[in-house]
Amino acid sequence: MNELELKYGCNPNQKPSKIFMADGSELPITVLNGKPGYINFLDAFNGWQLVKELKEATGLPAATSFKHVSPAGAAVGLPLNDVEKKIYWVDDLDIEFTPLANAYARARGADRMSSFGDFISLSDVCDVATATIIKREVSDGVIAPGYEPEALEILKAKKKGNYNVIQIDPSYIPAPTEVKQVYGISFEQGRNELKIDDEFFNNIVTDNKELTEQAKIDLAIAMITLKYTQSNSVCYVKGGQAIGIGAGQQSRIHCTRLAGSKADNWFLRQSPKVLGLQFVDGIGRADRDNSIDLYIGDDYMDVLAEGAWQKIFKVKPEVFTREEKRAWLDQMSDVALGSDAFFPFGDNIERAHKSGVKYVAQPGGSVRDDNVIDTCNKYGMTMCFTGIRLFHH
Questions:
Q1: pTM over 0.90
Q2: Could you list the active site residues?
């Protein structure tokens, strides 16, 4: 089969729609369940490239959670600690957490609000543990190089049997040029085949030259994630997972702020005050996520004043003051930060410092590089210039 007809394109009025191989060859995918749509396939193919490259760069199973052609989360399969299991809502699962299951729990859990209704990409054959986590999440579908028989049956039962399950041929190699049309005009470019490895971070331009092995892994995750994130984009990473992604902003400082606020939320969710919240019985995970986001936000006092907390919590929570939140965030450290293009001003580094950033990777090349380097030096950060821009549109 070299083409697959779709229900419609980006929107229901955009018909006809299909995916196909222009050279007449076979499509490298098989739909095992459901009827994936146009946006599903865009997310699936971008996400598959991301996890494939993460696996190649780190040697670890990888997963990503995609929404609207940008990752909401990406991670490799490092073990989860007890706090991480709790904030990702997987602590009650009676499963053996495989590396792939760990990767998806991290990719989904870092920014659960953005991951709601995601399309999942997995670097390895989907096992039962990973399928069990996926089973109870609101998700549109998954792409992987294969599925264990029991895992496939678990996934096929989702969404009343309509869950999208795609298998991709891991040996598929795309053509070296890409072509797309905009307003009836064809665009062609060479594929971005840039390989990101340890040597990618050799040009350290700050006074601090320390770059740990974990920092190299985290910076690789950041840059590979950015390679498949709509530009402008910035990515914060810690412990093998993206904890804040700022995508598609016209101003880089807004990318840095957006991603930084997501990274802050990730860390605030690990605070004793948030871990101690007591939810009413029967409340769903999505409602818990929304409530936690509200609780750690600046407008929670409005909810307390209106008395709406009884619908969410068993016990009225104490206010999480700005001073308490800042004190907790000041404990966050060793965060890696990647940018898909150069930082034009030191204000990006100032904002990154507030979220515990210690390692930075960016192309360099701004007329204000000296100011950015000086700002890193002020905080003892390690920054490398990659010399390569990673725009994605």
A1: yes
A2: 67-68, 232, 393
